[in-house]
Design goal:
By secondary structure, the chain is an alpha/beta fold. The chain has helices spanning 28-41, 59-65, 79-87, 109-120, 155-161, 182-188, 201-211, 241-249, 253-260, 276-297; strands at 6-9, 18-25, 47-53, 69-74, 95-98, 103-105, 125-133, 142-143, 170-171, 178-181, 216-227. Strands 1, 2, 3, 4, 5, 6, 7, 8, 9, 10 and 11 form an eleven-stranded mixed beta sheet that branches.
Length: 298
């Protein structure tokens, strides 16, 4: 990638609430639905920033026609990490929200997040909306089938039922839709480009927030979005994120998200401090498992 190959266009007005970053790679039908849901179902006014990867399917022309959307553009697919870090450069609000282009936000998604921000009263937080998926990908997700694609999406049923689906607030916010203060984003350096095109960049970002002192990782049940899941990731050559995370942090992402963030458990408040000895114990335990595995193979 060459920085000279990046175009940046900022057209929106000031006085908005969130700066919403949406990386997109030749996924126009889903992107249109995502933007439409933000425009239709948001109670507040937001800055929408789309990073267009390649855009050879008409995405670039469509975004250019939308004067209320800011955008950045790369001629090649540079992945979500570079895309997010480029797009955030034209954010004009205090709050950076990240949404996948294959997501449809439900009414109240933004007011519920803002409510949590106001209750919090400080910058050291990381909040996620709660997604609904046809087949739940984790214990953070509500499972309910409203369609597997844009073509068979049952929007009417979703809008009728989304708020009736039972789910508690949950621990360990990680995945989009998520929101963080711009100062915290800058402090940890955004998304780590060594994870390009993006596998395991989400738990890596959460680890960086953890090390920066964030203890309020909360999944907000009342803020909801429907997720069609993996509309772009199945087309890319994936980085070996699982092993990259281990190499960088000396523990698995699962150990971090399950034992430290307690992701998916019922929300009980800010996470407790974990002293260095506990972290070292987890790392040493992992190293012993790896050593034993290597001995078995030799």
């Amino acid at each position: 990638m060459n920085i000279n190959d990046i175009d940046i266009v900022k057209r929106t007005k000031e006085g908005l609430n969130f700066s919403i970053l949406i990386p997109s790679w030749n996924n126009l039908a889903y992107l249109k639905l995502c933007v439409e849901s933000i425009e239709k179902n948001s109670a507040l006014q937001h800055q929408i920033i789309i990073h267009i990867n390649e855009g050879s399917d008409g995405t670039l022309e469509w975004v250019k026609s939308k004067e209320n959307i800011d955008f950045t553009f790369s001629k090649k697919n540079i992945g979500v990490c570079y895309a997010l870090n480029i797009a955030v450069g034209i954010a004009s609000t205090d709050y950076i929200a990240y949404i996948n282009d294959d997501m449809y936000v439900c009414p109240g998604w933004d007011t519920e997040l803002l409510k949590e921000i106001n209750i919090c009263g400080h910058k050291n937080f990381f909040f996620s909306s709660t997604v609904i998926e046809r087949i739940a990908s984790s214990n953070c997700v509500i499972e309910k089938d409203f369609g597997s694609s844009v073509e068979n999406f049952n929007e009417a049923a979703l809008l009728k039922e989304y708020n009736e689906l039972k789910k508690d607030d949950w621990m360990g916010a990680t995945w989009p839709p998520n929101i963080v203060h711009k100062d915290l984003w800058a402090f940890v350096g955004g998304y780590s480009i060594e994870f390009s095109p993006g596998m395991y960049s989400d738990p890596d970002f959460s680890m960086k927030l953890w090390l920066a002192g964030v203890r309020l990782f909360k999944g907000v049940s009342a803020s909801r979005a429907y997720h069609f899941t993996s509309q772009s990731t199945h087309r890319i050559k994936k980085n070996k994120g699982y092993y990259q995370f281990i190499s960088k942090w000396q523990i698995t992402s699962g150990t971090f998200t399950n034992m430290i963030l307690k992701r998916g458990e019922k929300f009980t408040g800010a996470l407790k401090e974990i002293d260095d000895s506990v972290m070292n114990t987890l790392k040493n335990k992992f190293k012993r498992v790896v050593t034993s595995f290597k001995k078995l193979k030799s």
